[in-house]
Every structure is written in C-alpha cells, then in structure tokens.
Amino acid sequence: MCGIVGYVGFRNAAPILIQGLRRLEYRGYDSFGIATLAGNVCVHKKTGKVSHISDSAEILQGTLGIGHTRWATHGIPSDINAHPHLDCNEKIAVVHNGIIENYASLKRDLIERGHIFRSDTDTEVIAHLLEEVYDDDLLVAVQKTLPFLAGSYAILVLSEGENRLIAARNQSPLVLGIGDGEIFAASDITPILEYTSRVIYLDDGDVADIRPEIYTVYMENKPVQKEINEITWTPDAVMKGGFAHYMLKEMFEQPDVIHHAVHAVIDSTLPRSLKEAKTITVVACGSSYHAGMIFRYLLEPACGIPVRLELGSEYKYTPVPFSDVIIGVSQSGETADTLAAVKKGICNNVRTVAITNVLNSSITRSAHDTILMHAGPEISVASSKSFIAQLGVLMQIVNLLAGGTCSEVLSHGRYAIEQILLTDITKAVDLCVSADHLFYVGRGVFYPVMMEGALKMKEISYIHAEAYAAGELKHGPFALLSPETPVIAICLPGTAYEVMLGNLKEMKARGTPIIALGIADDIELLEIADVVIPVPPAHQWIQVLTCTVLLQMIAYHTANALGREIDMPRNLAKSVTVE
Ligand code: GLU
C-alpha cells in the first residue's frame, strides 16, 4: 500500500518525485507529499490526488528529495497527516510506508522530553527520535534510531546540510535504481524504469546511504555487497499506450500473458516439493484466492491430490499446516497475510512455493521455490492479467502433475482469449448498469470463476455483487431475487448443465433478469435467458479462461458507463502490505 520515492542526483528533484508518485498511484493512497532540500527542507503535502498537485510543488528547488503517497493507518487522511513528517526544528524529513507498532509509548516519552507533534501519525515519532540523536551524520542517526522501532517500515530520510538520503527497510518493500550520477529509491520499480534498468532490492534490516555518485548498504552497521539486477520490464509497460484505462490495456495483454504464464514452468523447473506432494495447501487473498480455488477444482480430479485452500488472513488461526507443501499466491509478492502464511509454513518445516509476478519481492525471498508468472507490471488496482497469469501457471502445474495430458489444450489459451475479447457484451452491461445488486452463479469450477467475476464488479463499479454456487441460492439468497436483481450465470454443456438450466428456470419464475454465459445456439438457454453471451465450445480449462475474461469485460464496461475511477477504485490498494 502507499508508495515512497526518493531522488539524489543532478536534476531538479521535484518533477522526478511527482512523476514517481504518479507511477505509484496504482498502489492506492489518500494523500501525498514531497520534501526537497534547497538549503532548507521544503515541503509540499496534501490530501487528494497527485494529479491535483499545485504548481508551487513543481517549483520546489533542490536536487535531492523524497516523496510519499499515504494510505492512512494512524490518523485520518489530512494535509497535516500526509508525509513527509519533520522534526521540531524542521531540519529532518521522513517518509514512511508501514506501521510503527510501538509509536504510542515512543510518542508519550518524546512529548515528555519536550517534542512538539504536529500530526496523529505513527510515523512522526521517527523524525523526533532522529532529532534527538542527530549529530551531523544522518546515517549514524538512523542506525541509532532503528533499534527503537517495532513494526514494519520502508523509510527515506533527508536532513539539512547533507547531500544524501538514508533508506531503511523492514517488512516493507524498497528498491534502489542506480543511474549515472543519480540514484533513485522507491517502493517498487515503476518510478525507476524510465531512468535506469539497474536496480538493487533492499532486504529487511538493510540501511542504505545514498549519494549522487555512490551508495553503501549496511546490515547491522556493516557494509554489505548487494547484487545489481538488470530489469527487463520496459518503460512502455507502465504507460497506458492509447487505452482509456490501464485495466483495459491489461485485459488486452491477456493473450500474451496466458502464453508466457503457461511457459513459466516446465517439467524440469517444477519444484520437487510439488512433484512429490501427497497433499497441497494453497494460501492466498482476494483474486489470488479464487485462482487457488480453481486450482483445487482442476487438480483433485486430474491427479487425486487433495488441495486445502486457506485465506491468507485466516491462516494464522489454523493450528498447524497440514500439507506437504504450501503454495503462496500473491501478484505483488508483498501481500502481508500470504507472506505471513508462507513464513508460518517454513517455521513448521513445510516446503513452500511462491507464485508471484514480481521478481525479488518479499515472498520470493521467503519461499523455498518461486514460480514467476511473467505478466509484466499490472498498474490497475483490480487485477485482470495477473489473475489470468495465475490461472496459466496453476493450470500448467496441474498439467505437469498429470503427465502433460493437457499441454495441447493449454496451447489454445492465447487464441481463445484473443477471440473472446472481441465479444459484444453491450446488452449485459445495459442490464448491470441500472442494478443495485447482482448475483453471480456457477457450478463446479465455474463457481470460483463467478466469485472472481463478482469481485471485479464490486471493485470497479461499486455495484453490490455476490457470487454463489448455484445450488446454494435456494438455501437463503433466493429471498432477495426480484425483477431488479439480475443474475449472471455460467451454463455450459457438461456435468452441471441440466441442473443449471433447472436453476435458471426457477430464477426466471421469480421475474429475475438472467444474463447467461453459454453456447451461442443453445435453444433452451436462449428461451430462458434475457441475454446470452456466447462462449465458444472448447475444453473446460479454456472456458474457464474465456468466461473469466467475459466477466472482466462486463465489470469494466459497467464501471466505465457509470463513470467510475476504474484504475484506482476508492479505498483500495494494489498490494496489501498490512495485515
Ligand atoms: N502508518 C503511516 C501513516 O498512517 C504510514 C502509512 C502508509 O504506509 O502509507 O501515516
């Protein structure tokens, strides 16, 4: 959640910081701010969007600065609570991502010692602690301060009179970008890509001293060598490229994404722990959880390996991990709950496999094995291509464990998605736009597909959408059906077909408008449904992909018709780095 960015070099820092914050907007935030050093510490901070930044911020002088997009955890979103935060003398500025858990007692002590606090944030204690120990060396001051902090942090600090930034990381991501005569720091690589492809991923406990030409990273106050990684993502990957929204662009990238994801793992790179597993647990949150559910529906019949599925946030309440291997699925690789679950598995001697999109993210450094899904950066908060990539990787795992029996099927994914993106879904959107409530129903593997479809609708259109296993509707939710509550259903030939048709008739009898994803010339379905969206006949796995994409399209175009802020839905953050 939130983002931080820093710059030390030869250019004006303010425009670079502002541009960097724009690139980080997708992570979710409620306020933002920057501080530069031009003799004095100059600060500009506000609630609202970076795009509303006033010209006065652009003209802040100085070739050194820090910036922040805040996702409030302590203190309401307000101009005062926005970062950076300063010490009493306004000589030290701090931006922080994370939570200082012991801030309350630290703050009490600092107030007793005469410090004046301006904000309600936990972060401000850092600035005052630094002030107490500062003696013309910011690095030493940070090293002396960190042992007092409990909690999670990625921190950037600057101080009057010193041409350097100090960065520190503990359980919150932080990356350095190494340019020529300039160095960047940020929560992820998106603000850095347009300046340099050389990056260093800081680890928990690292403290970096960053100057224009040189940097040193310390661990336990001793310098350490850090590997410089060459990034292959291009700057274009984080631009909209002519699409109205990042989400739309990312949906249209899905034909390539499925192709790369399926090839992300092959027999020789499939972790041994998976090959040998008798039982598997998948831990994930949000969309990734739905991908895990689909995995269970596919793996159990194909290989007879029982899959246990856990929400990352609930996993800590289960007594012990039961399986031979835990798969942690997280797009960003920073999802705090999933990360905690993976660590719990490791503590209990369970092998762990991370499936993520982000090289060197925290989960990749914890898990024993990693499968990267190669979807490229996903900027829209609501995931589309990363979900498809997760399905690609997970389907390939099932395929490999089943001896490659579905390789041929998987090779059709790219073309199938390419074609489905051309479907006309206008009539379905017309029905959804005027609804306050929607039900999504499916059976078997199409139940989690519907859960993902409903989540997409909720996230970006703000329409209340609930997914049910179709058989469950009669056990309560039926009471809510009316001519004002459209139902979206997947009704495809297969084992659940007849019973689904029956369910739809029962709904129709209550006057409920029905949008069905089905086969184009299905006469019976055409008679029942108000709108039939054609799904080409194909192997079930391919239909999982095509139905997923159709539901993304319905959510996207409904949200667009309602004028929603599709890429940055209210209250949401891209990577949920707090529990
Ligand atoms: N805990 C800090 C605050 O509420 C930082 C939140 C964030 O990571 O944006 O200001």
How would you describe this structure to a colleague?
The protein is α/β, with parallel strands linked by helices. The protein has three domains: about 5-235, Aminohydrolase, N-terminal nucleophile (Ntn) domain (Glutamine Phosphoribosylpyrophosphate, subunit 1, domain 1, 4-Layer Sandwich); about 240-410, Rossmann fold (3-Layer(aba) Sandwich), CATH 3.40.50.10490; about 415-565, Glucose-6-phosphate isomerase like protein, domain 1 (Rossmann fold). Helix content is about 35%, strand content about 25%. It contains 20 helices and 25 strands. The strands form four sheets. An eight-stranded antiparallel sheet has the order 3-2-4-1-10-9-11-15, with helices on one face. A seven-stranded antiparallel sheet has the order 5-6-7-8-12-13-14. A hairpin with a 4-residue loop joins strand 9 (about 175-180) and strand 10. Helix 16 (about 425-435) crosses helix 20. The chain is globular, with a radius of gyration of 25 Å. The model has no long low-confidence stretch (mean pLDDT about 95). Bound molecules: glutamic acid.
